Amino acid sequence: MGLRDSRFLALLRQQAGPESKKLMLACCGAGLAQGVAVFSVMSGLAQLGSDGVQFQTFLLFLLSLYIFYRLFHYTTEKAALLALRGIMDWRIRLAAKLRGIPMEHFGRMQTERTQAVLLDAQDMVVEAARMLMAAAANSVMMVVAVARMFTISFLGACGVLLCMAVGLAVFFRLVSSVNSRMLPAIQAEKAFSSHLRDLQEGFQHLKVHFGKTRDLFQRWLLPGLEKASAAREAMERRHALGISFFAVFNLLILGLILFLLPRLLPVDAESVTSLLVLVMFCLSPMMSLVGFVPMLGKVEMNLGQLDALEHELDAAVESCESGLVAARWEGREPEVPAFESLRLSGVSFAYRDASGAPLFAVNVPEFSLKRGEIVFLCGGNGAGKTSFMRVLCGLYTPQSGEFFVNGRPMADLGVDVYRNMFSIVPGDFHLFQHILGLHCGPDRVRELLALMRLEAKVRILGDGAFSTRDLSAGQRKRLALTCALLEDREICLFDEVAADFDPEFRRCFYEKMLPMLRDQGKTILAVSHDDRYFSCADRVIHMADGSFAPEGAKPGL
Fold first, then answer.
1. Is residue 413 within 8 Å of 337, Cβ to Cβ?
2. Which domains does the chain carry?
3. Given a cut of 70, is residue 326 above it in pLDDT?
């Protein structure tokens, strides 16, 4: 990838905008000031043999240092801030697009990979921005120094440039070989890390099962470690070779100038000394320049992953949300009409494999809900209950069928308005650190915590955070139910909410809470297998193989 196609440079240009020219001029100014400082040192060295260093030379040295410091500080700080702002803006943009993709596509994404892409590389990008400014300023200084070499000895300068060009060509060849080994090393380390996560997340299973422990270590952990180590070692050997070569190369150039140049070219001792001084001042900036190259390779790889993720999200964003994701967190919450009825007609949804072939389908010829109804949904594992609920609330987009709200097509409301009609407690619920999107007072929160018998376990802190989320499975489910009820939505969807409740609280949920919600005008659709409480429902619907049994059937009674 050339500099013109660099994502890193494009990121900085985009963030800098009209200030990019100012930043480039400041870099050039810093390089020129650094060159003037070098020339003042050389002038001081030449004056040592006469009457001593002149005060004007010393003043020029101090002035050039001050200018260099101010400009260098400005460029490195500005570039770092631009890079930080750019990477943070990119992450926010990706997070917004992630919010807009279909639920079924999100389920197919690799969560660990997405998290790594969104969270990694920030420090590396910021450091690369600083190094870029340093390399740019040093490059200007080196150009000035080389120009000065030509005024001292044209042939000597040509010889120095030839040696430097050969050395840099070899070094960049070595760097290229390092970059070619970087991706395999990263992939091998990610695979090894995934097995380490298995060790952590499956700790209790491994603790009681020696065979699983042995299998994990012998088949996966140890071979994965060997593969990751071998890939990383191959990369590091090349990297060490490149660094070592350049370190020797620096001394080699100085030796060639000192020992060979006077023998090969008509150059006097003063010219040789001047060339040596200029080259020594150039070597350190060259190190920063060549050190930036592998850093740029790593940054481009990380930004390439961000770019690939964005393209994936752009392709997956729902058409109904494509114009909204950029400002998802702005504006007012959609106003939801008073709910009276919901009807689905001819709705079908299918999971598909990579080739597009259907794997499992949910087919709903007819389904309806009325205000104040309690409907139970039951069926075996894999019957399609959870999938149907996700279709019902708009998380999954059906391939066919119509939705009618209060007798009107759902399209008249809009997807956002429709989804805002539902409160959901899914089986794989997530407890956020804070209470989000709620505008009720603390009294209402305390009331519901008492209703859920959590007032002695959980408090709401001043910033809306839970005092703890370290609870039993049943208590966490009750806390999730609390959050759902705080939303005060028209329709409540409960996916096996009572499964983790103790018998006493389970009876309270079915016999007291559900009727209470119905009295408040709420409509409830709950996945349940508690057949002893089926009498609490107005209807019980059985699902099998993605379809409904006839209305009113109550299996297990």
1. yes
2. 1-152 (no CATH), 341-548 (3.40.50.300)
3. no
